Amino acid sequence: MTSYAAAAPRGVSLSPRGAAAFLGQVATVADAEIRKLRHDPLELAMRAVQPTLWLVVFGQVMSRLRGVPTGNLRYLDFMAPGILAQSVLFIAIFYGVAAIRERDLGVLNKYMVSPISRTALVLGKALSAGVRALSQAVVVYGLALLLGIHAAWAPWNVAGVLLLILMGSGVFSTLSLAIACLVKTHERVMGMGQIMTMPLFFASNAIYPVVLMPAWLRAIAALNPLTYEVDGLRALMVQGGTSTIGLGVDVAVLLAFVAALVAIVTRLYPRILV
Amino acid sequence: MTSMRCEQAPPGPLPARGGEAAAGPAGPEAIHTEALTRCFRDMVAVDRVSIEVRAGEIFGLLGPNGAGKSTMIKMLTTLLPPTGGRAQVAGFDVAREPTQVRRRIGYVPQALSADGALSGYENLLVSSKLYGVPRAERRRRIIDALDLVGLADAAHQLVRQYSGGMIRRLEVAQAMLHRPAVLFMDEPTVGLDPVARRAVWDHVRRLRTMWGTTILLTTHYMDEADDLADRVAMMHRGHVAAVGTPAELKAATGDGATLDDVFVHFTGASIETGGTYRDVLRSRRTARRLS
Lengths: 274, 291
Prior knowledge:
By secondary structure, chain A is mostly helical. Chain A has helices spanning 16-39, 42-46, 49-62, 75-92, 95-105, 107-112, 118-147, 155-183, 186-202, 215-223, 225-237, 247-268.
């Protein structure tokens, strides 16, 4: 069986003009999503519930325990970047559901028969998921003000947080797209998302430091991209926060995951139609 | 659909039965297939189909649900790779040069292709960018396209508030924005009332007159093919049973024959048969959203 995926990236050349065209295609795909969100912002409002519950209920109670070694950070400050990463994860890991819906409606056909590069299409979808995820930053920064979390408000800190969210969302939304291309139905993508969210969340440094984990769990956490996202967010988002892995490593690992998953989904995407 | 094993599909073109004419002096072929085949596991959805569609022609692919029409269109629009044979569209091979093919075709699928969560204008804006319409020309082209299909007043309404006929007209405008050489339409009038159907037919004819667009449409409505198509191919169980002008086919079938009679004559089956659960589900869904 011949595959179109292999030939598709040829649609864009490597010249500067080709690169500009490629980025224009990525922006076009994401732009459609942003326009949809502008027409219907209610969906984003509903996404605020979960991080609010985690920080207001779980966070407030746990911060009275003082049992978790969080270094020089108060527990709520320690936890806030973790909860931000978690709510980004929860949105992104179900992005495949939107892809299946788009296929069922037929809207995906419009993109698939167009001459844009398949890689640009997948990156555009990852960026679309990222735009949704950015709304979570607004929610968590808002909660930080209300709950007295010591957020670092310097512009470069905030900019760094937003970039890390786009990267983290890129990892998990493309993972979800890959699953959608393989399992092909709405229900199965939901099921796979539910199977993955809690292990990804608990086998990470989101709400407790890795040093508390037994060795086997620590090994899993080291392979979990969420760990690197949280580590980077913790360094940038709260006052006095530090990275235990190194911000450069965090970014490199996240970008490597995104690159690998985009390459995989570029090959798999046409399969979602069959 | 036949139950023949896919590996057994022999290579090489098989001429279709019926009134297949040689390509006329009118110009190059817009679509050319040789023994084009698509299998799903061991079911053959399209079985060694060889057809030629001339530039500027309106060509109808006729047959019941499940005859293989949609699979044909998906292969010709590069959405589905063939498992055997070859196909050229607008001069390029669909398997080896898909991007070249995509630049030159427009597609109005049976399912929705306009995004209900965007306005009509925004849908066309996205399309114009996908096809690299120069920034300076975009606005003009979109407004002209909306005018042409009579949607100028509804340009900034969300498409989910459109009627079925309006959506179809928007989809035609969307597929024509980049002036494709070949336009594919899969069951363009399923679920539309008679007035809206006529409006779509008029648009199809106008596109051909204005830009000389080659149009391949699938339908299971015989009256639609009769009214609209210069030539038709009758598909049954993945095969092309007959090709010709509606008049030729009717003459070959007998005095006073309708295209329904032609279909029975060449396939031995009625147009009402066929269709898997999925086919029926899809056409009902399309009918529901357009009504």
